[in-house]
Design brief:
Number of helices: 13
Distance between the termini: 65 Å
Structural class: mainly alpha
Oligomer: single chain
Radius of gyration: 24 Å
Helix content: over 70%
Shape: elongated
Order of helices and strands: HHHHHHHHHHHHH
Largest sheet: none
Number of strands: 0
């Protein structure tokens, strides 16, 4: 165990005993050793709030909310910190947001329970992945999607969701590779070709974009979206 983890554990023990002054000293040491550790940062900040020193915690809590938008406690404590600093309206808004975040987390908890009850059902994992993706937990979502694909490797809907998630993460190369993987196995999936064309166009690969949209027309000659995209890329 490193020193930061030891101090963090001591902070939690002291907090459990109600010794906030001692707890914040230990939490501050843990956070000082590992300033990039969000958990240490969060506990240190919430202890400041509990000691009515919320104005000192606002900056950290805002950063934590940015990194953990799904975290109910971060929103709630930021709200409390703002109220302590005299920013009542903003604080109340964050406390209201905390309740919305809590409701979303309750849904995710339910989906996680479903996964545990149905561990061989790919759609349970896909549903959990979709919910995680919506709250910005992209790494967790990708893990659930990959479990779903392990259980049902031929499910192109799930493969498409994986490709879209790569795009959300800014990984255009892997997204395009995934789209290509799908159409190599099922070239009649026009929605995939359509998406590929858009990504190629945004990546300034115009010839590949044209080719993808022409594939759409090979299966659906009157596809309005493909026709419109081709018209735009051809400058008409």
């Amino acid at each position: 165990m490193n020193y930061a983890a030891a101090y963090f554990n001591l902070a939690q023990l002291e907090e459990d005993e109600g010794n906030f002054k001692q707890a914040i000293q230990y939490a501050g040491r843990a956070y000082g050793i590992e300033p990039d550790n969000l958990e240490y940062r969060y506990v240190y900040s919430t202890l400041l709030v509990q000691m009515d020193r919320g104005s000192e915690a606002i900056y950290n809590l805002r950063k934590i909310v940015e990194k953990w938008p799904w975290h109910h406690g971060a929103h709630y404590n930021l709200g409390r910190a703002l109220i302590q600093a005299g920013q009542k309206t903003d604080g109340e808004n964050y406390i209201e947001q905390a309740e919305r975040v809590r409701a979303v987390q309750a849904k995710i908890d339910h989906l996680e329970n479903t996964v545990r009850a149905l561990p061989d059902d790919p759609y349970s994992y896909a549903a959990l992945a979709f919910a995680l993706r919506k709250v910005g937990r992209y790494n967790d979502a990708m893990h659930s999607y990959k479990v779903a694909l392990y259980l049902d490797p031929g499910n192109f809907d799930i493969w498409n969701n994986v490709a879209n998630l790569y795009l959300l993460q800014g990984d255009t190369i892997t997204a395009l590779a995934t789209y290509n993987y799908i159409v190599d196995r099922n070239p009649a999936l026009t929605d995939i070709w359509l998406n590929m064309g858009v990504v190629y166009a945004l990546s300034n690969q115009k010839e590949k974009a044209r080719s993808a949209w022409k594939q759409v027309l090979a299966y659906q000659s009157e596809n309005a979206a493909a026709l419109n995209y081709l018209k735009k890329i051809n400058g008409n």
